């Protein structure tokens, strides 16, 4: 029986993507070859890469001043590449410390220059998004995390600043309408909302590059990847293909605005139950709640055994919270059907 998969990542993808990807492993586009055994320089794969790159821009409503790359190394390598490409020697960057992934990005940023943490909710266990800060023109860039996968918080607004905004959107990419043209760099590991692990989406505004005077190693240089149409070396062929299938699924189901409406309905269903059921409580403050990762806990630990048995019996998988926070985390990414959220809510009601 197919489980209701609430895993935080790698995570659920549309069933249609699993089916089409399986078929392509056996015979890709009637070539008599598997997607796993064709050259990345074949015209068939170049078409996949080009369609994926174009579809990202189309869904995000971005123009030719942006380039789309599919790289390897995960979001974690972007913690390194972004400052390497944007921070001048002796330069300064502003970072928002809204969670563990933000803190991991800060750690890498410090290896390239001065990092000013302009806001942090660390002392309050990252239960909210820091606000009331400004980002002045003295910085080379501002870095933030749009959705905090572990704590279940999400930035609803982004600061107005003249410096490039670098945003880690790993866990809420394509989940809601945002003015994507306010960002200098958007990056996301594929494995939360887009595809299998192995590919990392990077969207770059071209005119922010080439200003640091640094000698950047080839693989870490965005400009080089752009000049090679995201084919500098062997790309993660299968992960890019699965990402394309997900992008097509988003487009065929009404684009980002329709995905947002579905996500809001799922999140409301689950948060309404948490708010009305005295046995459950959220880790995060109401105004910053994420529509992707719902982190919550039992108010009565004596119910733990019964709750765990009940959700497992209902065919639910991946509900345990992150090891650093405990409790539970329901990841309700784009591909999660509302019916699966209803199954969880029914279990919560039954307790
Ligand atoms: C999962 C996650 C990461 C880490 O991604 P990797 O691809 O494993 O490096 C970084 N940031 C956020 C917001 C995440 O959810």
What does it look like?
This protein has 351 residues and is of the alpha/beta class. The chain folds into 2 domains: 15-252, Aspartate Aminotransferase, domain 2 (3-Layer(aba) Sandwich), CATH 3.40.640; 255-350, Aspartate Aminotransferase, domain 1 (Alpha-Beta Complex), CATH 3.90.1150.10. The chain has 9 helices and 14 strands. It has helices at 15-26, 43-60, 74-86, 100-109, 222-227, 237-252, 255-276, 304-313, 338-350, and strands spanning 4-5, 66-71, 92-97, 114-120, 142-145, 147-148, 153-154, 165-168, 185-189, 200-205, 280-282, 293-298, 316-317, 328-331. It has a 7-stranded mixed beta sheet, sandwiched between helices. A 3-stranded antiparallel beta sheet has the order 11-12-14, covered by helices on one side. Strand 3, helix 4 (100-109) and strand 4 form a beta-alpha-beta unit. The protein is globular and about 60 Å long. Residues 9, 74-76, 101, 145, 149, 168, 170-171, 189, 192 line the site of pyridoxal-5'-phosphate. Pyridoxal-5'-phosphate binds next to helix 3. GO terms for molecular function: transaminase activity. Pyridoxal 5'-phosphate binds at residues 75-76, 101, 149, 168, 191, 233-234. It is found in: Cytoplasm.
